[in-house]
Design brief:
By secondary structure, the protein is an all-alpha fold. It contains four helices and no strands. It has a domain of 63 residues.
Length: 91
């Protein structure tokens, strides 16, 4: 998990414009740390009402839908990451 986190942050830092780097990394940290906690809160609250099976299934379907959406756009994402201008030696 540490290697994946470091790799993700390195990719973000190299793919984002220098003037936006801090903002993007702050947003990434907020989503990376707060997203699972918010999801656990929502699934926990829903499981109190209808039991655990339905909210867990809904969360799994949402996760699969997100994976499918990203998989369908993988080539566009790769092109966007490849076209990032690299800093010159003069910078």
């Amino acid at each position: 998990m540490v290697a994946a986190g470091v790799s993700t942050q390195t990719l973000l830092q190299t793919a984002v414009d220098e003037s936006m780097r801090g903002r993007v990394l702050s947003l990434f940290g907020l989503i990376f740390r707060g997203g699972p906690a918010l999801g656990a809160l929502v699934i926990g609250a829903a499981s109190e009402l209808v039991g655990l099976q339905a909210p867990l299934a809904a969360g799994a379907l949402l996760g699969l839908a997100a994976c499918l959406a990203l998989w369908r756009r993988r080539q566009a994402i790769a092109r966007g990451l490849q076209s990032v201008p690299q800093p010159s030696a003069d910078d």
